[in-house]
Amino acid sequence: MFVSDFNKPLILQSDFSLLLDVHNPLFDEARGRLSAFAELEKSPEHIHTYRMSPLSLWNAASAGLTSESILETLSLYSRFPVPPSVRAYIESTVSKFGKIVLIDGGEGKIEIQIEDERVRREILSQKTIIRLIAEENGKLFVPLLNRGFLKQALIDIGYPTEDKAPLVDGEPLELSLRTPTAASGKPFRIRDYQADAVKAFYRPQTPGTGYGVVVLPCGAGKTVVGIGVLNELQCAALILTANISAVRQWKEELLDKTTLSADQIGEYSGETKEIREITVATYQILTWRGGVGEEFPHFSVFMKRNWGLIIYDEVHLLPAPVFRITAEIQAMRRLGLTATLIREDGREKDVFSLVGPKRYDVPWKDLEQSGWIASAECVEIRIALPQEDQIAYAVAGKRGKYRIASENRLKLGVMKKLAARHDGEPVIVIGQYLSQLREAAQTLNAPLITGQTPTALREELYRRFKAGEVKIIVVSKVANFAIDLPDASVAVQISGSFGSRQEEAQRLGRILRPKERKAFFYSLISDGTIEETFAANRQKFLIEQGYKYSLEFDGP
What we know:
single chain; about 550 residues; alpha/beta; Rossmann fold; 4 domains; 7-stranded parallel beta sheet; 22 helices; 23 strands
């Protein structure tokens, strides 16, 4: 007979979902513990639903959590005993991490170590795996070029590989960290949590390290983590970024915070093709090709030097074609940097197997409480859909409905009110649709930055905004990633990419640089429309991080 304890916030269900009571005093504490091994699925007002997926449990296992520690957390917060089926699922799933290990096989070979005979037989029965490996004297080996493809194939059948095979050191490069910095002359040191992230990623002389993903909120200094890893490794590096603005920012940060000189840092983009000891490239140039079915000519950049480290900035944006080359370069150290591991294309398993598991993560609210990122208030403002648009909305398809709701013209009036409410503060207006953004810029008499804005003009507008010469800028989704606007304190989101959780996190991140005043993140949503549903999905990741959205209503 079950004895319940209603003072606890959690209910476990046999489908591996977890129901967490928002109103329980232990909610925040339990949420922080659950997020280490479960993913938030739903976040209505009263009960949040989490789910333990194989990938969330494998990430937990790679970070050192055991099935015992996970079950201990569940028992601590659960109103009822852990169901036997849930216990068995956790133990079985977690135990699969490390069942298959890649080790140094000598003579340039990689040995596949499988101690469990049942697992060995299961693996050898898979046609997709047999073609990737060889057997010699009862031992299994994988050719160097198949290392990544094998890891992909194994995770597809439920066996995440623990890769302890050697990684190349790469071309040596001497550098050190500056203190003070070159540009401002201010003291510089790697913060404690950044140093912890570097240590979690790479431990000298320790097999199985030197690859993986570091998850930190925007504004928390992911670039500094990359610089810290580079300082530890002292090697040539290829850095892949989301756009040309990010390329320039990496170059500025490297020159500002390390002893590297300008002629040691190359830019590889649509505008410039430089290969130097440190080369910063865009994903766009790597995935360019003349036509469908043709080769990707710029993939050759991966082989231009003996890289000792590849950094995937904004790894959640890693384009699908790059996974192919990533599978072929498994002997190199690989660091993924991101604010969220969520991929809207569902390829989180490929990031896990080819870049590496999550090595370090810290809750956003923890960094906020320590003063490393700004305190932020998230507000969803519901706005009535104009009467004259309601018939068109009613008869439109799903995509049409979303666009009509997103481009609700009454949003511009609310946007203008918010700009007046925060008069004198640095405000970013972010949206999805160019016609809407042009109207917003005209309404506010503010500059507009889109993908069509020339790079030089874009950087000049960013400079003027940072200098306080321009107080409001209107930006398209080009501002979702890797722009450094440290003083921005207000973001007004007038439309977004359907239910993209990663985009919501990135947009909030635009205003999280440390500052004395509180930051405000406003999302304008058409009331009673499909946009509400997408907004609820967009907000899930940030709610999992501890943010709460208050609700306001505006309009007739």
